[in-house]
Amino acid sequence: MDLNIKDFSTLVRDQVTAIQARAAGMVDFSIGALTRAIVESNSSVVQWIQQLIVNLLATTRAATSSGADLDSWMADFSFYRLSAVQATGLVTFSRFTATNSALILIGSVVASSDGSQQYSVTIDTTNTLYNPSLNGYLVPSGTSSATVPVTANTAGSAGNAQVGTITVIVGSISGIDTVNNSGAFVNGVDEELDDAFRSRFVLWIASLSKSTKAAIGSAIMSLQQGVSYTLTENKDINGATVAGYFTAVIDDGSGNPSSTFLSSAANAIEAVRPFTVTYGVFGPQIVTANVSMTLTVDASVSKPTVISLVTAALQTYISGLKLGQLLPFTQIAAVAYGASPYVQNVSSVTLNSGTSDLSATSRQVIRAGTINVS
Known about the structure:
It holds the Pfam family Baseplate_J. It comes from Chromobacterium rhizoryzae. This is Baseplate protein. By secondary structure, the chain is an alpha+beta fold. Helix content is 30%, strand content 26%. The protein has four domains: 8-59; 88-180, no CATH class; 209-282, GMP Synthetase, Chain A, domain 3 (2-Layer Sandwich); 285-373, no CATH class. A six-stranded antiparallel beta sheet has the order 8-3-4-7-1-9, with no helix packed on it.
């Protein structure tokens, strides 16, 4: 409902009108008069009461609460805001001389070029170089590089990184000389915003006590921020028809979710799935997008600088595509034009050596491969 809020001048004017209308003669409301002082004091108190009422109404409804007040409102339902998510990705450790073996310990720290963000090496049991007894990745003699997963030490979007920006080894790793990231880190997300928190609450309420697609979706989306998923009924992961079975393909935003994340997703689904219905939880298949183009830029600026901006914009756009989302061929040029006002023309554009859109199935997610901008 709309509140009839009055400002200070209106409150003073209304009181003066009411008093004068009931007085037998003229009442002095000039500056310094006692009656004017009383009227203005009343108006100040009324404004304070008005603000208290507005604040009370704002904090008693989820639609108008914000920040800590919204958290408190949701906590009455044991429903909580999703925390920030740490960025994850792969970095490549290299060395100039590969005569001896080298060990990259779990927990080894690398940093961005400016030193603002640090990342720690994490365990990947599927990596052939991982050695559990040594608690790290053993790079054998004769091997000049090793690609391993890292996680940002600080949660949030600040941990996201463009290609080639993680270049510092904090401390030292014996037998390792350099580090770099060949792919962008894009799955770091800040703490859930108020609007997203409210939207997820509505979905959660709609899913209560229901073994429905919405309930399963709510359980998956409550794992963390940046999650996307597809649910395919009566089909297994290979597309074969299996009655009473559904396939859940889930991505944490990286395109390569860990086994721990997929296990957590399976546990969340298990809590809400219908009785006698079975399911499978899988990570996405990556469809590589190789982009090539030629730019014509304004002569007043450095072309390498513009190329760098366009390359970063393309990496960010492609990395933001969700499961099953199409990469339109025409959008590639649009991203390039939008990256810098100094881009005058985009020509010789190819996507995977062709000029067709790149599609993805419900199990696939498109990620950037080689971005060649000249």
